[in-house]
Write a structure and sequence with these properties.
about 0% strand
Length: about 90
C-alpha cells in the first residue's frame, strides 16, 4: 500500500462524509438563519425557539434524505471492501 493510495482512500472517505452530512448541515443552517431573522424582526430572544424548529427540520431531512445517505455510505463501504485484495497485494 503506497502513500498515494492511502491519501486517495482518505480523500474519498472525506468526500463521502461531507456529501452525506451536507443535507443535514444545510437544513440546520437554513432553519437557523430563518429563525434568527424571525427573532430579530420580532425581538423574541428565546433559545428554545431556535432549537425546536431545527430539531423538526433535521428529523424531516433525515427521513427524506436518509435512504440516499445510507445508499451512498453502503456503496462506498462495498467499494472499499471489494478493493481490499488490491490494496494489500
Amino acid at each position: 500500500m503506497t502513500p498515494s493510495t492511502v491519501m486517495e482512500l482518505g480523500r474519498s472517505a472525506l468526500e463521502v462524509a461531507f456529501l452525506v452530512a451536507a443535507p443535514m448541515f444545510l437544513a440546520a443552517l437554513a432553519t437557523g438563519l430563518i429563525v434568527s431573522i424571525l427573532q430579530a424582526a420580532t425581538q423574541i430572544n428565546e433559545m428554545t425557539l431556535s432549537f425546536v424548529p431545527k430539531l423538526i427540520v433535521m428529523f424531516v431531512t433525515l427521513v427524506l434524505a436518509g435512504p440516499w445517505m445510507i445508499t451512498t455510505l453502503t456503496d462506498f463501504i462495498r467499494r472499499l471492501f471489494s478493493a481490499i485484495p488490491t490494496l494489500i497485494g
